[in-house]
Amino acid sequence: MNSLLPRTDVEALLTRWRALATGTYQSWFLWEERLKNFRSIRRGLQTVATEIAQGTFGYAYRGSSLETVVRAVAEQRQLFKGADHAFLWKPKLRIPDIYEHPDNQRRFGQFLNACDCCTREADIVAAIHALDAARIKGLGPAAANLLYFVHPTWVVPSNTAIVRGYNALTGAKVKLGSWADYLAMRHGILAINGEHAKYLSNDLGAVAGFLFDLGVGHLPLPPGVADPRTHAHWEADLARVRDDAAALRLRATQNADDQTHTDVQGWLRDLGLQLGFRVWIASNDRGRSYGQGRLADGCLTALPAALAESPAAEAIGLIDVLWLDTENRAVAAFEVEHSTSLYSGIVRMLDLALGAEQGLACHYFLVTPDHREGDSRAQFARPAFQRVRELNLKFLPYSSLQEHRVAMGRFGSGLKPLEALARPLR
């Protein structure tokens, strides 16, 4: 479906949206941590499908592998806030009916597995039609928020704000909760994405973010009728949105979070080099500014062959910091989780442990602010992380690292000083 607005108006709107400090384009789509979560969320969905197929998933949402992965989706900043609501068990309504109804649970698992194995866009649509035909009460297009992380170029996220923004832009009357309406909306969104490709992306998260910001009122729509007076009001509204002080403060806070993450990576880089290790910095963080240079200064420029040839090489390359010995064996792995999901970092370390030779001999550290220790222990205790208990995984609080890193670098050797500071999560 075409926009109600002239093409030039839509392009002007997209231009302003891309520059909006707190719009989803700047604060989520370009967020460097965003792409690091795709593999771990997909792997989590594979675990859910496998448990359902094997009959070990159970009948409860709380504590399940599904809760773990859906929470990781819901933590993907504003676009997915509340994504877990659709999967929470509502006892009075008995929805979504995938916990107490074994056949529905199996259909849901088959749906996840089919979508994971899809190699064509048409297969995704067919899997959605099959799930819709099952008429599982309470399980609607919110599942698209899971599939987006498996096929981001084929699947559009869906929530109330995205639907509202799409309806406002096109004059459609899409109803939330209907798979048929979702597929019709998806068709229209693909047309919008194609028509305005230079402002968007093959990753449909961008156009979904644009519609989300329209739907929540971050971007006021211009009037559909060309009238100089009303267009002047529209321009004034857009200017006010861009200058909104509260919005800018939110963006500043998010930037501060990202900078703290970089600072801790820098501490670990410097400490590793001082202790005589070779250091690897996550591939998508290497160019970040740190000190007088870049975060990856003095570090390995490529993963050693033994790690680069691993089936899990992509995930290993995204681990925040790796220390390696002179024979290029991974000695210590660090995931820094300042405010983002702990789930993704733990899964990347598990990929290293199970996907690399002698991976289980590596020492693993979850590095977070002190107040996240309880959350770290709660995540580690989840049934979904049963295999993680094979790791030598420890909690390393920011305060201890900050206080002792200089002394360890000067007088320490090997991993002993760090092991003494860290606390086991077993």
Which strand order does the major sheet show? 1-4-5-6-7-8
Mean pLDDT: 85
Secondary-structure element string: HHHHHHHHHHHHEEEHHEEHEHEHHE
Largest beta-sheet details: 6 strands, mixed
* Approximate strand percentage: 5-15%
What is the overall number of helices? Answer: 18
Supply the helix-strand structural class.
alpha/beta
* Beta strand count: 8
Ends distance: 54 Å
Which stretches of 5+ consecutive residues score pLDDT under 50? 241-249
Short description:
About 50% of the residues lie in helices and about 10% in strands.
Give a written overview of the molecule.
This protein has 426 residues and is α/β, with parallel strands linked by helices. Helix content is 51%, strand content 8%. It contains 18 helices and 8 strands. The strands form 2 sheets. A 6-stranded mixed beta sheet has the order 1-4-5-6-7-8. A two-stranded antiparallel sheet has the order 2-3. Strand 2 and strand 3 form a beta hairpin.
